[in-house]
Fold:
Amino acid sequence: MKVSPDPSTDAFNKDCPGREVFDHVTSRWGILVLAALRDGPLRFYQLRDRIGGISEKMLSQNLRVLARDGLVERMVEPDIPPKVSYRLSPLGQEGSAPLRALLDWIALRAPDILLAQSRHDANLSPHS
Structure:
């Protein structure tokens, strides 16, 4: 007899609560925020500068979501003005490792992927 997976932990189930976290972690900016923090804490402006193309609004939204998920921690130093930095929580450290490996693989294989895209697009030309 086949046992059905637990719907609360089966990412293929539309009602799995993990899907929301999956969306946060693998979003365009979520993966880059987590990967950028992998090497240690960064201030907001350092994160913004590290992640080319992210607006301050999107960075702020992603940091709030990832903090709510328990993946990022916000640290405030009581200086004047206060210094705020962000770091991965232990849970975020664990989750960022495979994401970083994925980014490394994409960087390594980007030429092959671009070549495949060019070949594919050439086969879709209107004259074929």
Q: What stands out?
A: The chain has a mean pLDDT of 91. Helices lie at 18-26, 28-36, 44-50, 56-68, 90-123. Residues 8 and 87 are 29 Å apart (CA to CA).
